[in-house]
Amino acid sequence: MQKEQPGMAGGRVGSESRKLLLVDDEVALRKNLVRAFEREGFEVATAGSLKEAYDVAADFCPDYAVLDLNLQDGYGMELIGTLQELRPGVRIVILTGYDSIASSLVALKAGAAGYLAKPVQAEQVVATLLGQADDGLEPLVRPMSADRVRWEHIQRVFEQCNRNVSETARRLNMHRRTLQRILSKRAPRP
Predict the structure, then answer these.
(1) What is the spatial distance between Cα 140 and Cα 134, in angstroms, rounded to a whole number?
(2) Contact 92, 83 (CB under 8 A)
(3) Which of 91, 93, 84, 79 is nearest to 125 (CA)?
(4) Which CATH class is domain 146-184?
């Protein structure tokens, strides 16, 4: 079994540049995605933290990027501006385990080409990166559950407060610890 190392992970490269930066702190997911991206002809560089991602991006200058929203040392969306300065036109997809409408809107406004909730299939990430429509999705027919509506509202206020937990709790008239517990959990089913 080949050991994944931070930085470069080799892959075949076509005639056009297909350099991809993958930033995720989940080692198993990162390894699976690297294999899938390499099969698709991407040259992949990886990072497991925000700090490492800044260093790798500066040296690698990617054409594509897949960024985890919540990293142990920050938020993946912080990288979007830097990546766009390094390579105008870079296509970025944000991955998250904490899916919300508010954070997806923030990511898309910041310049991400896509926003996907974990668990995610590698083929879905590749299709989003390359701008290929997914015709297999059925439209949502049921309205969101009350728990999901509450979750979305909390996420929207959290984003409006620039991810400041204390300010969000104050605006929602909620105890800060209660809010932290809510934010640490995955989104309820729609």
Answers:
(1) 14
(2) yes
(3) 93
(4) mainly alpha
Amino acid of residue 144: M
Q: Please, which residues have CB within 8 angstroms of residue 38's CB and are 6 or more apart in sequence?
A: 9, 10, 11, 12, 44
pLDDT digits (tens, 9 = 90+) for 109-151: 888 888 888 778 888 888 888 887 554 444 445 666 778 778 8
CATH of domain 7-129: 3.40.50.2300
Residue 1 has pLDDT above 50, yes or no: no
pTM for this one? 0.66
Domain ranges of the chain: 7-129, 146-184
Average pLDDT in the 175-183 region? 91
**What letter would DSSP give residue 78?**
G
Residue with tokens 């299939």: 121
The end-to-end CA distance of the chain, in Å, is 39
- Strands 19-23 and 43-47 turn out to be parallel
User: What is the per-residue DSSP string for 20-34?
Assistant: EEEE-S-HHHHHHHH
Cα–Cα distances in angstroms (integers) from residue 93 to residues 69, 108, 154, 165, 168, in the given order = 10, 9, 23, 25, 27
